[in-house]
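[audit] Reproducing an earlier prediction to check determinism. Same input, same settings, fresh worker. If the tokens differ from the archived copy the diff job will pick it up downstream; this log only records the rerun itself.
[audit] input (201 residues):
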Amino acid sequence: MPYLLLGVGFFLFIFSILMLVNPSLNQFDWVITEWLSQHRSLPLNRIFITLSTIGGMPFVLFLTTVWCFHQAWYKKYANVIFISLGLIGSIATVWLLKYVISRPRPPEMYHLVNSYGAAFPSAHSVYAASLGCLAIYLSLRHSKQHIIVIVAFMWLLIMGISRVYLGVHFFSDVLAGWSISFIWITLLYLLYAKLSRAKTN
């Protein structure tokens, strides 16, 4: 699982960069944005606008804090460090890349929600994928691992799609967001697992 996610992460990151700089692939971004804007409905608008609020940094930080307190309650302090570093590293990486790349968002006529900062990568996609990856890795020896994996991937997929549907991101922004989380959380997990094995030995 870790090396598969790591490979997928690097592939998605390279592909998202190609979509960003290659005019032909960049056109694909505009086609998807235009197509989704033409297939909106009031129920979907409400669902995705709600997701935009839930997937933002305030709620994600709240959820992560509760999760860390839960792990600390059961004295799983290594998990608390893993979760905290995973989220903090993801947040720092996505906002640094936003500042460096400074890609404009789609035109405001597509926007259904307010947005802040540059487009590339999508912060909501990073947050969703980071939480998903953290949940997956902490559930690797859990009896309900398969359910957690399915729910985690459904969450990050829906959140990513919602950002394009709401008109505040291009598809390549979402791919880049997912890739950052896959790479960072996986590398952190591999280090975490290595240190855990060294401690037991």
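[audit] rerun output stored. Observation attached for the diff report: The chain has eight helices and no strands.
[audit] end
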